[in-house]
Input
Amino acid sequence: MRRRTAFLLCLGLAACSTTQASLPYTPASPPAAPAAARPVVAVAQVTDRREDGHEDPNWIGTIRGGFGNPIKRLEAPVPVTEVVRKAFADALLARGLLVPDIATARYNLTVEILALNADQLARREATAEFRITLRPADGGAPVLVDQERANRVGGSVITLSAGVFGSVEDLRQIAQQTMSEAIDRLLDKPGFIAALR
Output
């Protein structure tokens, strides 16, 4: 009886577990700077429009038990809007497109976060979806509006690494990879570079 009580107590404590972790931009391969790359873009505004996670601006994902009950939470140490702002800025910098001073930007990039979440019941799954608007810094109509979604699934349906044994670090990694993939898809499109000319 004592063992059963201790086991249930451990499960109860695991249900309250929250881990904070960073989610930096990490492309699958180093991005190439476009031939005519110039530092002309600033990340002006990021808005969180997520349906999943809208009640907690820092929430990234959850590992769930067999009944769908939350066991471990993954969240960023800062609001997800700041995570995404930094990720887009780092991605632009890697391509030679980020201005060092926002006051000198020729274009402002605004980002809407439509999805950024990671969950695990048995397998890990992450989704990232962003809508970007690029407009001249001095005002006027947008020169580009685009949207991309990335989705990744990892792990096995038959696994012992689920529930209380699920790895928050593995969940963080799949969220990070998915976010970076969606950003790369947006910034590597020929239309994005063409809009900067």
